Structures are given as structure tokens and as C-alpha cells.
Amino acid sequence: MKRTLILLAALFVSTFTFSQKIVVRAAKEGDAIISIMTYNIRHGKGMDGKVDFDRIAKEISLVSPDVVALQEVDVKTKRIGGVPSDSVIAAKAGGYNHYFSSAMDFNGGQYGNAVLSKTPALSVTPVPLKGSEEPRVMLVAEFENYFFCSLHLSLDSTSRIEACKTICETAEKMADGKLFFIAGDFNTSVSSVEMNILLNHFDILSPYQLKTFPSDKPDRTLDYVMVLKNSKGKRLVRELNFKKTLSSWVQPEPMASDHRPVFVVIIKGDLLYSATVKD
């Protein structure tokens, strides 16, 4: 298991250590497969204590991924002024479709996870997950060729173990021959018991050796992108080693949230990069 993960990381991870606008695309338009982002936005509250959705939206628009998993999303809570932050961020990031799943009622509104997408989802399904300190949820969005999930696991290890079992069972039941991606804040390291449960069913695509939390001085990795090891997922991982290209990195944003955003871009063939300094 770990040999596979190390192989992917060693051969196909590209890292960026400066803050800039990055455009990563296929050399041939028809070679594009999917670009993914996951970001725990802490309800838009930055390390400076300010709630600023423009900063979150800018991090998304810097790379303009096909799908985005957001965690710690407030909708109409008092602490963000009663606005629906999922739709606000979606609009500011470039007109994304947006889907929200509430984990709980909170502060006069709701609190949970969201998925943003360039194309409309065929369906969205909330899946409750175990959480001892607060309710947790995984939002499953189905698209033509894949499923994409935004999740946020508990701070409690026992709850995470139960949640990981639910995630695996849900993925195996729902995938139906499609690629099945999960992305989010897993609140644990790659060597934990609960992560080992997941890794019996999923492969990690994101650069798990790069730190994502806390954003100002990151010292641990909590945020991941994974793909289910069903027939489509196994084929994808196998082809990444021979034909396709995986580019993944942690965007070095130290202020907009307490987590840094994680990106994964998968294409067939050659990558084209361009970069300009971020405003």
C-alpha cells in the first residue's frame, strides 16, 4: 500500500512554493480529465480574525478547478452577517454551481460542507458521519463521469474510525462503475488507524507529504484528495504511472483561512504551465 503512495508522490507531484496565479492545463484540450481543489475555509475567517470571502474566492479562481470541496461553510449564520457564503463564494470565484449540506443548525443559520462545480451535478446526497463533539457530514455530488465528495472528519479518533467505515461503505455502494473522489479535512495523519481503513479502499492523489495546517506555519497534513480503488480508480492510478499526468500542490496561502488549499490536476498527455504573480 505505502509503496504505491510513495511511487505516486515521487513521480508525479509538482510543488509550488510561492504565491502566484497558476494555470495548469492539458497541452491538448481533449486530454483534460479533472482538476480538483479542497479547502477548509473556517467560515471565511482568516488568520487575522477577519471574515473575507473575497480572499477565499481568489484562491479558487487562481487555478479555476473543475470541482471544489469546501469545509466549515456557514450559511446565513450571525457570525458572517447572515449571508449564504456558499453562493457568495461560488459567484465571486467565477460563477460556479454550488451545493451545500448542513451538518447542524448553528448561530442562527447552518454549518456544513459545500461542493462547487463548473458543470451542474446530476444529484447531490448528504451522508451523515460520526462526530462526538459535533455532527459531521459528507456531501456526495454525482456528475456524468465521476462522483465528488466534500467531507470533514471529527477531532475524535473513535468517531473518525466509524466515519471512515461509513465513507468506504458509501463509496462502494454508490460508485456504480464511475470514478469516486473524496476530498476534505480528514483531521488525521496518513499513518493513523483511521487512514489505514480508508487506504484499503482509496489511493491518495494529493501531496500528503506537504503540510496544510495551520496556514501561517503549517506543521501537519490534514487535507487530502483520494480516489476509490474500484475498477475505474485502479485503472486511473495504473495509467498515472504510464500515460497520464498528475500535478498536485498545496497553495502557500497563509492568511485567508487556518488551512491551506490543496489542488490536484489529472490529464492525459503533457501539461502546460503558466504563472503570474498574484495580486
Structure commentary:
- With 279 residues, the protein is an alpha+beta fold.
- It has a single domain, classed as Deoxyribonuclease I, Chain A (4-Layer Sandwich).
- It contains six helices and 14 strands.
- The strands form three sheets. It has a six-stranded mixed beta sheet with strand order 4-5-3-2-13-12. Strands 6-7-8-9-11-10 form a six-stranded mixed beta sheet, with helices on both faces. Strands 1-14 form a two-stranded antiparallel sheet.
- The longest helix has 18 residues, at 157-174.
- The protein is globular and about 50 Å long.
- 46% of the residues are buried.
Explain the layout of strands and helices.
Elements: H1 2-12, E1 20-26, E2 32-40, H2 53-61, E3 67-75, H3 85-92, E4 97-106, E5 109-117, E6 123-129, E7 136-142, E8 146-152, H4 157-174, E9 179-185, H5 193-199, E10 202-204, E11 223-228, H6 231-240, E12 244-250, E13 262-268, E14 271-277
Parallel strand pairs: 2-3, 8-9
Antiparallel strand pairs: 1-14, 2-13, 3-5, 4-5, 6-7, 7-8, 9-11, 10-11, 12-13
Helix pairs in contact: 2-3, 4-5
Notable features of this structure?
23% helix, globular, single chain, Deoxyribonuclease I, Chain A, alpha+beta, 6 helices, 14 strands
CATH class placement: Alpha Beta
Q: Profile the largest sheet.
A: 6 strands, mixed
CATH topology: Deoxyribonuclease I, Chain A
CATH architecture: 4-Layer Sandwich
How many separate domains make up the residues?
A: 1
- What low-confidence regions span 5 or more consecutive residues with pLDDT below 50? 1-19
Helical region count? 6
Instruction: Calculate the terminal CA-CA distance, rounded to whole Å.
Output: 41 Å
Spell the H/E element sequence.
HEEHEHEEEEEHEHEEHEEE
At the fourth CATH level, what is the homologous superfamily? Endonuclease/exonuclease/phosphatase
Number of strands: 14
Outline type: globular
Helix content: 10-25%
Q: How much of the sequence is in beta strands?
A: 35-45%
Radius of gyration: 17 Å
Mean pLDDT: 89
- Strands across the major sheet, in which order? 4-5-3-2-13-12
- Output the structural class: alpha+beta
